[in-house]
Amino acid sequence: MILGIDASNLRDGGGVTHLCELLKAADPTTQGFRQIILWSNRNTLAQLPSDKPWLTKIHEPLLDQALLYRLYWQWMKLPILARQAGCDALFLPGGGSGHGFRPYITMSQNLLPFESSEYRRYGWSWMRLRLFLLRHAQTQSFRHADGLILLTNYARQTVMTRIQQAHGRWIAIPHGINPQFYQSPRVQYPLTTYSPIKPLRLLYVSIINVYKHQWHVAEAVAKLKNEGFPITLELVGPAYKPALQRLQTTLQQIDPNSDFIHYRGSIKYADLPSTYHQADIFIFASSCENMPIILLEAMASGLPIACAQRGPMPEMLGDAGVYFNPEHPDDIAAALRLLLTDHELRAHCANRAYAKAQTYSWERCARETFDFLRRVTQDYKERI
Hints:
It contains 14 helices and 13 strands. It is of the alpha/beta class. The longest helix has 22 residues, at 362-383. The chain is globular, with a radius of gyration of 22 Å. It starts with a strand and ends with a helix.
């Protein structure tokens, strides 16, 4: 069989990471796929493996252009290209539709369109309109797909509540973790071990965005700093401009000289493992997620974690973290205070998180994904 993959909607972030790691770990020939044909933009293709004999990567110039060009390609070009290539099925990891090609298997990787309380944070903006339109488009795509892949049980409940009835099969397949992130939990020391010269280092890796609440984290850390805790906070990630402006305003008020809060901006993926490994505590304050790879990476890095009690995070982290309401700086501060003052709790959380991380692998993700793609394809052939 030949499988087509439309990666036109994957441009950066977790979606590209997922596809890259999936293809690295996969051997689809064991599931009956002798060839994978993948269409995408130049930047995404450059990040995908080039040493797979079964993988053909095709650059489509229209996919390097603005949204309207990409939509034109998806609607008018993709079905024709898939048929000409002899594809037996079409996989759309970016959540798209087959636009007349059958069977197609799609995937939900972004819950923002399905949680209206979250996309309302964007106010009356182009981003809010875009998410509203995406909600409608993905509802139709998911409802009529021959197969739908979700990442967590929380995502399944959220999406299924919206689409109400799915035409085809669905399955929940969690992400994996790149082995380079694994680091055994370190020995945890009492707070008295640290000082302003040797502070305890807090880390939050994620895009600066309206539902990530970095400004609330900064306010919580400033509160603890004023109480005398020897801590610093490092914020890492690209930024949505309006959210970055809000963060910068907050930082100017609470730490104008960047004495204890530092925003590094975006860094290379290859530099992420060392960034985690140099931290002492990880903070994850997002209020809307599907299955954040970042949280898995922090778990694998053996860090004690303070985490938002929202979305799938409790499902992923379980009893291996301390939880807070991400919209209340005092609650964030209270959770961090627990970890800071109790080194035994830090050790417990770090060890439990590291153990939970062992259950996630890209090999398992790839095996289950291509097995599902095979079953959906064969079921469709048997019906026609």
